[in-house]
Amino acid sequence: MRSKTTVALITGGSRGLGRDMALRLAEKGIDVILTYNSNKTEADHVVAAIKAAGRQAAAFQLDTGDTASFDAFIRQVTGYLEQETGSPNIDFLINNAGIGLNKPFAETSEEAFDTIVNIHFKGVYFLTQKALPFINDGGRIINISSGLARFSFPGNSVYAAAKGAVEVLTRYLAKELGARRIAVNTVAPGAIATDFGGGRTRDNKEVNAQIAGVTALGRAGEAEDIGGVVAFLCSPEAGWINAQRIEVSGGMMI
Ligand code: NAP
Fold first, then answer.
1. At CB < 8 A and 24+ separation, what contacts does 161-170 make?
2. Does the pLDDT value for residue 4 go beyond 80?
3. pTM for the full model?
4. Is residue 2 pLDDT above 60, yes or no?
5. pLDDT in tens, 61-92
6. Domain residues of the chain, as ranges?
């Protein structure tokens, strides 16, 4: 990476929404550090696509549910950036990585609860805390929530509650980090046709039709509906947007 470059760190950039965010940010001239949990090959494809488009990119392994690994991860990323750009800092942190859990409340085990809360809330909390010294003043943090934090579909109690926690956290971060001119916002996608949740929205015709039926714009979302919004929130024009929950759902469940 060249010096004075603008850098975004996206968790879960190997597939789905994170992949689209990475590509859209690169189109806007931003270099990208993305993470994957287990799919190195997919992550490498995203890195190659960004490089082919003329920006710099690198992929690092990270399990956002494993807070004990965060210090080493931050050292790895900042060491890489220092070497490539002369500065360990990033401009944008996008907390996107995650998995779904579709289980009725009565059948949700403590183990499953911990897995979801660790990835979607505890991980977001402490990764942001550890990254904070390396986010440039005037930077941005974007936390990915879900429409499910506003409306309720049975079987999503832990997942949606963890996303709700992230939405509250977003407002607190915005308040506390304002002194450093760091804007913090939530993007809450509706149901999107990705691998997420076993690919239900994309592959299950009934589920897909049900979602289309409760969405004002008449279809389920695609990854391409989301990345550009995140890229916009990282643009100079969006600098005054702060502490907001921006739902990107085509008008789902209104
Ligand atoms: P996806 O296509 O399944 O991709 C998930 C991404 O997160 C992958 O890059 C994956 O890495 C990574 N990841 C999974 N578990 C991880 C872990 N423990 N630690 C670190 N990275 C991990 O999912 P998506 O649809 O893009 O979802 C992205 C975000 O949007 C999630 O936060 C999700 O809750 C949210 N969201 C999704 C929908 C939807 O309907 N799709 C709706 C609302 C909100 P690997 O490739 O290595 O597995």
1. 162/116, 162/117, 162/119, 162/120, 162/121, 163/120, 163/188, 165/120, 165/121, 166/95, 166/120, 166/121, 166/124, 167/143, 167/245, 169/121, 169/124, 169/125, 169/143, 170/141, 170/143, 170/145, 170/243, 170/245
2. no
3. 0.98
4. no
5. 999 999 999 999 999 999 999 999 999 999 99
6. 7-193+223-248
Interval 198-246: pLDDT, tens? 999 999 999 999 999 999 999 999 999 999 999 999 999 999 999 999 9
Which residue in 131, 137, 124, 136 sits closest to 172, CA to CA?
A: 124
16 CA distance to ligand 1 centroid (A)?
7
How many angstroms is it from 3 CA to the middle of ligand 1? 31
CA 171 to chain centre: 16
Ligand 1, atom 23: nearest CA belongs to which residue? Answer: 196
Question: Which atom of ligand 1 is nearest the CA belonging to 221?
Answer: 40
Compute the Cα dihedral for 190, 31, 124, 120 and give only its sign: positive
Closest atom, ligand 1, to C-alpha of 34: 9
**By three-state DSSP, how is residue 191 classified?**
coil
| CATH class in words for 7-193+223-248 | alpha beta
